[in-house]
Amino acid sequence: MPRKPVFDGNEDSADYGSAPSNRRISESKIALFIDFENIAIGGPEMIRGAAKILAYAAVGPGQGLANAGGFAIAETMLAARFNTPEHRVTDHHTYVVPGDGELMEGITTEASSLAGHLGLGKLIVFYDSNDISLDGSTSMSFTEDVLMRFRAYDWQTLETSAYDADTILDCVKQARAETGKPTIIMVRSIIGKGAPTKAGSAKSHG
User: pTM for this one?
Assistant: First the structure.
């Protein structure tokens, strides 16, 4: 089963793009990305007039963050068991990039709560916040204060712009310096930035 620890739900296109090279999905199926009847459906938040169960083995909405939590737990356990003062057998950070749609999912709530409880200091989340879902503005269904929620989970919370590289690097340094709790970095972005008629619109989603 393919695993994708870095990207979450609506980053499916990155995974599908590599699929023809390893013969998992044909190019003709990729061309119909997000078509409901197609195998490469992506991650829709709303399906009108349909009653089907959808499953994507590699990752579905929210699964990436949950998987990343599992990887961070594994790193912590392996380090505790095998690392010595002379030999650091395992010593790495786990990064994940979910979007608004993923943080709407219940599984990210459970996984993030557990990560905070366990104090997974090597788990770093880049939350791509553009306030757009497949069906329009997130204001239709998702208006909570996400960073306040994660502070309640005992996470370090940071915020930056997607277009300020220096500040992003500074946030990463702060995240790596915090060893007692996981970190979420809210990265404010504009979906479709630069597209004259689609920037900031659900028209550029998917």
Answer: 0.73
